[in-house]
Amino acid sequence: QVQLVESGGGLAQPGGSLRLSCAASGSIFSIVAMGWYRQAPGKERELVASITASSGGITKYADSVKGRFTISRVKRTIALEMNNLKPEDAAVYYCSLGWEDNPLLGDLWGQGTQVTVSS
Fold it and tell me: Per residue in 36-48, pLDDT tens?
């Protein structure tokens, strides 16, 4: 059984920073990609950032977070460094994994971690 566990999150002021982490465990032979999604109340879940396991780690970001968020990966753990946070970044953030049995992101989720941005 493959599991994802997120940590980090919490409350930050506008312009502040937070760091999220996600660790994958279980029967994983080969990671294809990992990513972070977020879902704000009343909105659909959206992809925030992703990183591939091959080709040196190709990263992609939503336009709304480019230049402010950075995704990184070390083995089975990914992190999301969030800087210059804005109120619109507030959401529940979810980690997702693509691996050899299910290579697409968006099928397996962690439990989510709340990010609140408020003064």
Answer: 999 999 999 999 9
Tokens of 28: 């994983």
C-alpha span between 116 and 91 (Å, rounded): 7
**90, amino acid identity:** A
Is a pLDDT exceeding 90 seen at residue 103?
A: no
Name the phi and psi angles at 88, rounded to 5. -75, -5
Do the bridges between strand 31-39 and strand 91-99 make them parallel or antiparallel, or are there none, so unpaired?
antiparallel
- Whether 81 contacts 93, CB under 8 Å: no
Q: Where are the beta strands (DSSP E) in 2-118?
A: 3-8, 10-12, 18-25, 31-39, 46-52, 59-61, 69-74, 77-82, 91-99, 113-117
